[in-house]
Amino acid sequence: MMMELIEILRSKNPHLTIFDIRDEEFREYGTVLEGYDTDGIMSEAKKLAMPSEGSQYLASVQAFEALEIAKKIKDDVFGTLDTQIGYCHGHSSYLNALEWHFGSEVNIAVTPLVLMLAKRSDIRGGRIDSSSVKAFFVPQGSVIEVYATTLHFCPCEVNADGFGCVVGLPAATNTTLEYATSDPLLFRRNKWILAHEDNKALIERGVVPGICGENYKIKY
């Protein structure tokens, strides 16, 4: 069924090559993590009401962090560093922005979804062309590590029901800055971000417009 879905997405998005996370192309951006029992955390995630429009990000969900999988992520991926397990869900179809962190990010696909990814090394003078972006299909139930060198942002939905993605990060990532720094791209703690030039909402919130080219949309 997932192969059928990815082929449907590919046929509806000829403007953008959509890879699978098990394709060789993903190796530069992250890795698929094996041996994780996701049943419990996916069940807890489905208890959270889906936003009717837009997306919502919860940096830390106590119900997730109480599960054994949270400790496994903390130990296996973050080397026992303090870790937060949160949730991003809702409705999103556009590239819109690219962000990065000091440290990897773990994603668990509660629904099938698409991630648009690029490399930090593609940023030149605080700008990046969207032609550097590659799209990856993430099947439901997949657990992946997205490397610190990878630019990413909100997942894209692949059906009208919306998307759900568990997000594991070093503790306090994406929380409010305690003080301003000289770096205009540092938007939250351990969160650097560039907005697409067409994304007026993020720019009005103070995110630097640094992505030119097409603001890709995933059609389904």
Question: How would you describe the overall organization of this protein?
Answer:
- This protein is an alpha+beta fold.
- It has helices at 2-12, 39-45, 62-65, 68-76, 200-204; strands at residues 18-20, 30-32, 55-58, 83-90, 97-100, 105-109, 113-119, 128-129, 134-138, 143-146, 150-151, 163-170, 186-188, 191-196, 209-212.
- Helices cover 16% and strands 31% of the residues.
- The strands form three sheets. A six-stranded antiparallel sheet has the order 2-10-6-12-4-3. Strands 5, 8, 13, 14 and 15 form a five-stranded mixed sheet that branches.
- The protein starts with a helix and ends in an 8-residue tail after the last strand.
Describe the protein's topology.
Blueprint: H1 2-12, E1 18-20, E2 30-32, H2 39-45, E3 55-58, H3 62-65, H4 68-76, E4 83-90, E5 97-100, E6 105-109, E7 113-119, E8 128-129, E9 134-138, E10 143-146, E11 150-151, E12 163-170, E13 186-188, E14 191-196, H5 200-204, E15 209-212
Parallel strand pairs: 1-9, 8-15, 14-15
Antiparallel strand pairs: 2-10, 3-4, 4-12, 5-14, 6-10, 6-12, 7-9, 7-11, 13-14
What is the helix fraction of residues, given as a range? 10-25%
Strand tally, please?
Answer: 15
Low-confidence stretches are none
Overall spatial form = globular
CATH class: Mainly Beta
How would a crystallographer describe the biggest sheet? Answer: 6 strands, antiparallel
Number of helices: 5
Rg over alpha carbons: 16 Å
Please provide the ordered H/E string of secondary-structure elements.
HEEHEHHEEEEEEEEEEEHE
- The span between the termini is 15 Å
Round the mean pLDDT to the nearest integer and report it: 97
What is the count of structural domains? 1
Query: For the record, what is the CATH homologous superfamily label?
Result: Jelly Rolls
